[in-house]
Amino acid sequence: MSWLFGNGVNLARFRARLRLAERELADDKIKIRLEELARAASPDELAHLNLVTLSKAWQRSLTDVVRGFLVATKHKLFDLHFLLHCQGCNGGASLGGLQNVKSKLVCPACEHQNTPSLDHSVEIAFTIHPDLARITFDGKPAQEQYLRAIDVINTEEFKNLFERDKPLPGEHITVGSLTFFFTDLSGSTATYEKLGDGGAYRIVREHFGLLFDIIKKNHGTVIKTIGDAVMATFTHPANAIAASIEVKDAFKQFNKRKDIRGAASLKVGIHTGPCLAVTLNSRLDYFGTTVNKAARVQSIADKDQICISRETLEHPEAWPLVERLPVFHKQVPVKGIKQPVEVTVIK
Ligand SMILES: [Zn+2]
Known about the structure:
Layout: H1 11-22, H2 28-40, H3 43-46, H4 51-58, H5 62-74, E1 78-85, E2 92-96, E3 105-106, E4 113-114, E5 122-128, H6 149-153, H7 156-161, E6 173-186, H8 188-217, E7 221-226, E8 229-234, H9 237-256, E9 265-280, E10 283-287, H10 289-300, E11 306-309, H11 310-313, H12 319-322, E12 327-332, E13 341-346
Helix pairs in contact: 1-2, 4-5, 8-9
C-alpha cells in the first residue's frame, strides 16, 4: 500500500477532499498547513489535534484555525469530539457531539458528578477522519491549554455547518462568561414611511449585511434577529467592543447615503456574564439574566450611542478600547433588576 504515508495517512484521498473544501476555506495558509499536518504529523498528534497549540505554531488566530478545521471536518478530513474534563479525577470522558453534553455529567471513571461549562470543562478535540487513517481519538484531555467548546460553538461555521449539533431540547449547559451584543435600528418607522415598504426593507437588509460582516470579522456570531434588532455573542468582551466601534463608524457612512439621509440610527448595548446554552425553536440559543440585562443595557442607549455595562468593562482588555473615546457614565434603574444598571456610554 505505497500510497500510505509513514504516519498511515492516505494522502491522495486527503488531498482530494481538501480540494473540495478549498473553496470554502477563507484562509489560504490554513490549507497549506492542513496538508503539511496530514503529511508530517505523528499518529499520536493525529489522534488528538489541539487547535490552541496549532494556532500558536502556525501563527494564525485561534478563530481562523477553528473556522478552517470546521470546514475541513464538514468535508470529512477530520472528526470533531466533545470531551469532558472531569473535575474529580482530572481524566477525560469522550462525549461525541453537543447533544451529549448535559447540565450534569457523571464521570465514567470516578463517578464524580460534574456540572460542565462550555468555557471551562468541555474541550473540543479533532482527529484525522477514520477514512483517511486507522487512527482513533485518544479520549485523553489535553494537559495544558485546550480548545474550549465555546470557542468552536461561537462561530458562524459551527452554526451553519453543524446545524444539527446542539443541546438536546430541555437541556441547558452552563457558560461561565459570554458577551452579548444587542443592536436596534431606530428611526426605522420614519424611514419606512419616507421610502415605502420596498425601499425600507432594502435598507434594513443592507444594515443587517453591514452588521453581520463586522460581527464576523471581530470573531462574533449572530444568534438571531428580532425585527430590526440583532443579538450576537462574543467569547471575548474586547472583540464585542471593537465590533461596536467599527459598526458606529460604518453606520455614519451608511447614513450619509442620499437614499437614507440620516434617517436610520443604531443603538448598541453590550453586557457580559454567565448564561445557559439551550436549544430554542430548534436552534442554539442562550438564556438567563445576563441575556435579559444585555437587552436592557441596549435599551438605555440613545440614537448612535453604544452602551457598555460595568461587567463588560471590568475585563482588563476592554477598558483600553474606550478610554480615549468621548464617554460618560450612567446609572439607570431598570425594571426587574434590583441594583441600578451601571453603564459607560460612547457618544
Ligand atoms: Zn472522573
